[in-house]
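>> received
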Amino acid sequence: MSSNILNPDNNLLENEGGVVDRESNPVDFSNLSPDCVFDAMHAQGFHCDGRLLALNSYENRVYQLGMDEAPPLVVKFYRPLRWSDAQISEEHQFVTQLEVAEIPVVPAIPDMHGNSLREFSGFRFAVFARQGGRAPELDRAGTLEWIGRFLGRIHAVGAREVYQHRPSINQQTYGHASLNYLLRHDFIPIDIVHAYEATARMMLTAIENAYQQAGDVQSLRLHGDCHMGNVLWTEAGAHPGPHFVDFDDSRTGPAVQDLWMLLSGSRQEMQEQLCDVLVGYEDFFSFNPAELHLIEALRSLRLLHYSAWLAQRWTDPAFKQAFPWFNTQRYWQDRILEMREQIALMDEAPLRV
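>> returned
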């Protein structure tokens, strides 16, 4: 079971994954009304024109706000108790470093004192410029190579220093801690809990074997959630091409964590996509082929982490509305089948460079 640590920044009990036990620390966004959002912005000197659009975000609350005689801004209110102030500030500092390196990202706007993390009425929030864009056209020649170039540049900056406060993506934080949380809080139906646990532990053993095959790989600061939904494509402006957004899940881990999430489809399709990404990536950062042993292991860890993430937020009414299929008998049965498939995939040879 993961050890708990006392967070020195806000005296909240957090586990190694940076997630608080929801039973002892319930989450409540109910006081975050539109008036509260406008008051928070006005208190920070932003003059809103009354337009407010809620954007798609489950973890936090994110809004696009119209400004008087200025372009719209995006404000993110952080889920209470998830990250400490130091952890949020580290993410902001990383994204600012990327911007200084002329990588197309969207950093938090600092106040007059240079602070990017703001507070109002007990809520912590950050303000960002609005970044437009569309989903990348992956079948368009050169798109994945272009994305790979910028991802290589992100990792080159990420490798310069390490996070001091943010957790890592590894077998403990995403694997064992997630499974222990699910078992400890009785989310899995009693008639299949033993099958689920046995399968999950077999998968964790296969993950351990994959890590052993990969050997000692470099750990660096990552985007952490680099799926195509967090890559916006633009054709015009100062930086045409891909823009990387939402570093909220940024953690430390192997470089391939940000690469495998760009891959989809059949094994052959993923092989071709990986080669396209690496053509651009290795122009700026060297990729260790041993990390290919971790692709299915990291995918497996994400499956466990995702179930625990939903469980930890199940007291939030927004989650019950957005994920009505979670915590049903069918959900957990499907997860058992999914884990068995992952065990088989980790038995296969990895993708090639």
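>> The domain at 143-345 is CATH 1.10.510.10 (Transferase(Phosphotransferase); domain 1).
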